[in-house]
Amino acid sequence: METIIANLRTNKAAKTGISVVSVVLLLGAVALLGWPFFTNLYQSRLQSRLVKQLADPALAQEFRNHNVPVGFSLTRLQIPAIGVDTIVVEGTSEEALRAGAGHYTGTPLPCEVGDVAIAGHRTTYGRPFSDVDRLKVGDRIILSTPIGTCTYEVDRPPFVVLPSDTWVVAPTPGRATLTLTSCTPKGSASHRIIIKAVMVQTATAA
Fold first, then answer.
1. Closest CA to 87 of 99, 97, 98
2. Is residue 171 a contact partner of residue 177, using CB atoms and an 8 Å limit?
3. CA-to-CA distance for 8 and 22, rounded, in angstroms?
4. Number of neighbours of residue 53 by Cβ within 10 angstroms
5. What are the pLDDT digits (tens) for 158-201?
6. Residues 163, 191 contacting (CB under 8 angstroms)
7. Is a pLDDT exceeding 60 seen at residue 141?
8. Which residues, including other chains, have CB under 8 Å from residue 22's CB and lie 6 or more apart?
9. Is the peptide bond before 57 cis (omega within 30 degrees of 0)?
10. Higher-pLDDT residue of 57, 202
11. Percent of the chain, pLDDT > 70?
12. How far apart are CA 87 and CA 33, in angstroms?
C-alpha cells in the first residue's frame, strides 16, 4: 500500500488522472444535487404561463370539443390536505410532464363520468405529488376546468402497484372517479403509488 501511495505521489500522469477523476465526480455530484432545483425552477415558470392559458376562452372551447392539445392547460388540481395547487396539462409524455402533472389521454376529461387519470412527479418538476402517500380517506381533491369545477373525495388509502398494473386506470362506466398515479418510492420508478377518489360534487358549468 505504501508503495502504491509513493508511486502516486511521484507519477505525474497518475496525479493528473486522479485530479481529473476528482473533478468529474465533483461535477457529477453537483449535477445530481442541482437537477431537482433546476427542474423545479423550470416548472414554476411554466406554471405561470399555464395559469393564464387556463383562463383563455379559446381553451374553453377546445375543452368542450375534447380537443385540448398535448401540453396545454387542462385543469387546476388542488388538494388542500397536502397543500397541492398546480395546473395539470393534457398528456403524460415526458415533455408534457415537465409541467409537473399530466392527464392520461384516452381517459375522460376532468369532471366527466368515468375514471379521470392524472400522473404527477414526486421529486422533480415542482414535485406536486410529493406527499400523496399522506392522503387519507375523506380528503378532497378539487379540479377546476375551463368550463367548471368539481370535487372528488379519496375513498381508499393510497396503495402501491407495479408499473405493469394498468388496471388501476381502467374505465369505470356510470361512475365519476379520479385516479392519481406517481412513482414510488421517491426517486425510483420501480413501483407506482395510486390514489383513488370518487366525485362528490358535480361540475358547475361556466
1. 99
2. no
3. 14
4. 16
5. 999 999 999 999 999 999 999 999 999 998 999 999 999 999 99
6. yes
7. yes
8. none
9. no
10. 57
11. 80
12. 26
What is the rounded distance in angstroms from the CA atom of residue 103 to the CA atom of residue 56? 19
Q: Which of 108, 107, 134 is nearest to 195 (CA)?
A: 134
Number of H helices, E strands in the chain: 3, 9
- Using the CB atoms, write b or e for 54-85: b if 16+ within 10 Å: beeeebbebbeeeebeebbbbbbbbbeeeebe
Reported confidence tier of residue 4, pLDDT bands at 50, 70, 90:
low
Owner of C-alpha cell 379559446: 58
Length of the chain: 206
Name the CA dihedral angle for 4, 6, 10, 13, rounded to a multiple of 10 degrees. 20
Question: Which domains, from first to last, does the chain contain?
Answer: 36-201 (2.40.260.10)
Each residue's pLDDT tens digit, 85-128 = 999 999 999 999 999 999 999 999 999 999 999 999 999 999 99
User: Which one-letter amino acid corresponds to residue 133?
Assistant: D
For the record, the C-alpha cell of 68 comes out as 385540448
Q: At residue 88, what are phi and psi to the nearest 5 degrees? A: -100, 135
Model confidence at 156: pLDDT above 80: yes
> The pTM is what?
0.81
